[in-house]
Amino acid sequence: MRALEQSCHSAGVTVRTGTLVTELESASGILTGVRISSGTLACSAVVLATGGVSYRKTGTTGDGIRWAGELGHTIVPLRPALAPLIIEPPLPPAWRGIAIRDGRLNATVHGRLLASWNGDILFTHEGLSGPAALELSRPVAAAIERDPVQLDFDFFPHREFAELDTDVTELLRGTPGKMLANSLHAWLPNRMVNDLLRSAGLQPDVRCHSLTRDARRRLTTFLKSWRIGRVSHVPLDRGEVSAGGVSLREVDPQTMRSRKIRRLYLCGELLDIAGPVGGYNLQAAFSTGYTAGMAAASDWHRESSGRAGC
C-alpha cells in the first residue's frame, strides 16, 4: 500500500479520504465537476466505480447509480443476485451447516420450471445458500414479486428415474436386515436422513427387506424431486452482487464511456451486469474498471494535447 501511495504521489495524484461526494455536476451534456461537502471539484473526467447495492455495510449504498440516473441514464430495476434464498416453512435447525454436493436445484412457478442449476447447496439458519441457490436467486427474486416459487432438489441429476430405481433396489437387497435410514447414510447426510424419509412418507426404522415395491418407488421419486419449500424472500443486502443498474445500452463497451454524458466513464457493478457464480463478476469489475481508467486517461491526454497545440 505504501508503494502505491508513493507512486500516486510521484505522479501528482491527490488522494482524498473521508470525503463525502453528494452529486455529479454537468452542463450541456458534459460532466464538469464532483460536488463534495466542502464545495465542487472541477474535473476533466470522472470514472464512476461505486459498486451496486449489496453488502451496504461496506459502503455500497447505490449512490453512483443514483447519480447516473440524475444525469439521464436509464436505470434497470435493482434486484438481488447471487443471494441466499429464505425458505418457508422454516427448515429444521439441525440442518444448519450441512452441504449436499452435486445435485440439481429446480425453481418452479405453478408447476412450470422457472430455472435450474446443477451444483452444491448449503443449509443456513434461514434457508439455502451454496452455488446452486445463489445462481437461482436472480430469476427467483424477480418471479416472487408476482407468483409463489417452489424449490425442489434432485439428489442424482445424472441418473434417470429407472436407473436410480435399480440402484435403490440393489442397495436394499444388499442390506436386507438394516434399517432404511442406516442404509441411506451413504447417500444422504446423517443429520437429515430421518427427517427426509419421514417427509417422503417412509419410516426410518423400517427394515430394508420389508420395504414394499410402492415404498421403494416412493423413495426413488423423493430422491429425484424432493420438495424443499417455498421461497419467501431473497435478501438484496446479502447478495454477493446486485443485478440491475445503469443500462448497458448507454455505455460504450470498448471504452466504458457514457453515451449520455461526455467525460463520464462507468464500470463495475453499478452497471446492469450480474454474471454467474465463479468469479465472473470480479472479472467484469476488474476488466471494465481497467478499460474505463485507460479510456479516461487517453481521452484527457488527447484533449490536453489538442489544447496545447492551439
Give a concise summary.
By secondary structure, the chain is of the alpha+beta class. Helix content is 32%, strand content 26%.
Notes on the protein architecture:
- By secondary structure, this protein is an alpha+beta fold.
- The chain folds into two domains: 2-80 and 239-308, FAD/NAD(P)-binding domain, CATH 3.50.50.60; 85-233, no CATH class.
- The chain has eight helices and 13 strands.
- The protein has a six-stranded antiparallel barrel with strand order 6-9-8-7-10-11. Strands 1-2-3 form a three-stranded antiparallel beta sheet, with helices on one face. It has a two-stranded parallel sheet with strand order 4-13.
- A hairpin with a 2-residue loop joins β1 (21-27) and β2 (30-36).
- The longest helix is centred in the last third of the chain and has 29 residues, at 280-308.
- The protein is elongated and about 90 Å long.
- The mean pLDDT is 93.
User: What is the succession of H and E elements?
Assistant: HEEEEHEEEEEHEHHHHEEEH
Strand content: 25-35%
The number of domains is 2
CATH topology of the largest domain: FAD/NAD(P)-binding domain
Gross morphology is elongated
Mean pLDDT over the residues: 93
Distance linking N and C termini: 40 Å
> What proportion of the residues is helical, as a percent range?
25-40%
Low-confidence stretches: none
Query: For this entry, what is the oligomeric state of its chains?
Result: single chain
Strand order of the largest sheet: 6-9-8-7-10-11
Going by CATH, the homologous superfamily of the largest domain would be: FAD/NAD(P)-binding domain
Number of helices: 8
